[in-house]
Amino acid sequence: MVVNKSKAAFRTIAEVAEELGVATHVLRFWETKFPQIKPMKRSGGRRYYRPDDVEIVRTIKDFLYEKRYTIEGVQKVFKEKGLKNILGEEIQKDFFEEVVPNVNLDLSSRKLITDLIAELKEMRNDLQLAIDKTEK
Fold it and tell me: Environment class of residue 4 by beta-carbon count within 10 Å: exposed (0-12), middle (13-18) or buried (19+)?
């Protein structure tokens, strides 16, 4: 089942495997061979692939399956050329980094935003507790 996600969304290992047509154990194996693949791991070991990780894995698959390189050959290409040269300048950029213009807010707007942030943090903590309980 393919879910429509934005390009910047994190993906589970199952979603990446399905998208690329490889098994999840293959992705875990590639993680051991290519330190450039760094999925975020949550408690319980669940992997979340960043958009950059998906592009790296897609490139590895292309080298291995289409161009018929060996794993050692792909490692050598990555070492000699570097990821930025292979994948472009956007790789390994912080997807959440953006330039935000300075905005002057009045006191009531600042308080509203501060209260919302506090509420969101509390909700995040509650969700994390619920996740931790279900993973035990």
Answer: exposed
Q: Which CATH number fits domain 1-97: 1.20.140.10, 3.40.50.620, 1.10.1660.10, 3.40.630.40?
A: 1.10.1660.10
Bridge partners, residue 47, by sequence: 41
| Cα 26 to Cα 107: distance, rounded to the nearest angstrom | 53
What are the domain boundaries of the chain? 1-97, 99-136
* Gap between the Cα atoms of 110 and 121, Å rounded: 17
Query: How far is the CA of 119 from the CAs of 105, 113, 115, 116, 126, in angstroms?
Result: 20, 10, 6, 5, 11
Concatenating the DSSP letter of every residue in 9-38 gives: S-EEHHHHHHHHT--HHHHHHHHHH-TT--
Q: Which tens digit of pLDDT belongs to each residue from 68-122?
A: 999 999 999 999 998 888 887 655 555 444 555 677 888 998 899 999 999 999 9
Q: Which residues pair with 49 in a beta bridge?
A: 11
